[in-house]
Design goal:
Helix content: 40-55%
Radius of gyration: 17 Å
Structural class: alpha/beta
Bound molecules: 1,3-dihydroxyacetonephosphate
Distance between the termini: 13 Å
Strand content: 5-15%
Length: 249
């Protein structure tokens, strides 16, 4: 059985006071909850990890540098993230690909840097609206998988999040058939590259306007193992029903 995961990406939202949401979330989570990860902004990682110790929630970062250390003002290394107590790091989010010009090969190096510090990499892929409208989605996804994933991917060190750029923060969600098609395609590509045994166990998350209202439908797709949630992860009262929907799927 593949593990199910619900990950919340707080993006550039939240200060220390918002960490109270972790305890609220823990009380609202069902007893049979899947794995839950919260990725707060970097300055909150240490406090979040400490606060989450009394809960079943795990903590992740939103990005890491590809190098272990050096003259990279403002960046943080995977070792620094691990040092806060966090266990996961998102790499290749489309907001970083766009706003920070990150390329597939940078993301591949970041995933390797994450592994070197015993962090699980949550590698993001997804097509733009332009690619979507030109029916290029599967080509783009194939290219991002080939370029962003290192050769040593395992079901323990990697989670893949499919986030169509046009669905992020827009309230627009692909149809269930579209989500299923891309997730099936990702699983088949992983099987070709890493073998069916590994591919079958890698968690595939869907991200992009996941809300309490649409989560149950999205989780119906066979190869959707959970969600990477932005806006609806900020408040425990929004995120908890998504977690419950995943537990019931
Ligand atoms: P929203 O859930 O706000 O659309 O964001 C999705 C996302 O980018 C998560 O990484």
């Amino acid at each position: 059985m593949r593990r199910k995961l619900a990950a919340g990406n707080w993006k550039m939202n939240g200060t220390a006071a918002d960490l109270a949401e972790l305890n609220v979330l823990a009380t609202l989570m069902p007893a049979d909850a899947p794995e839950v990860i919260i990725c707060p902004p970097a300055p909150l990682l240490y406090r979040a990890s400490t606060a989450a110790q009394a809960t079943p929630i795990s903590i992740g970062a939103q990005d890491c540098h590809m190098q272990a250390s050096g003259a990279f003002t403002g960046d943080i290394s995977a070792a620094m993230i691990a040092d806060t107590g966090a266990a996961y790091v998102i790499v290749g989010h489309s907001e970083r690909r766009e706003a920070h010009a990150e390329r597939d090969r940078d993301i591949r190096k970041k995933a390797k840097a994450a592994w070197a510090s015993n962090l699980t990499a949550i590698i993001c892929i997804g097509e733009t609206l332009e690619d979507h409208e030109a029916n290029n989605t599967l080509d783009i996804i194939a290219g991002q998988l080939a370029g962003s994933l290192p050769s040593a991917v395992t079901a323990e060190n990697t989670i893949i999040a499919y986030e169509p750029v046009w669905a992020i923060g827009t309230g627009k969600v692909p149809t269930l058939d579209q989500i299923a098609e891309v997730h099936d395609f990702i699983r088949s590509k992983l099987a070709i590259r890493y073998g069916a045994d590994i591919a079958d166990m890698i968690p595939l998350l869907y991200g992009g306007s996941v809300k309490p209202e649409n989560a149950a439908l999205i989780f119906e797709a066979e190869n959707v193992d959970g969600a990477l949630v932005g806006g609806a992860s900020l408040k425990a009262t929004d995120f908890a029903p998504i977690i419950s929907a995943l537990a019931q799927s």
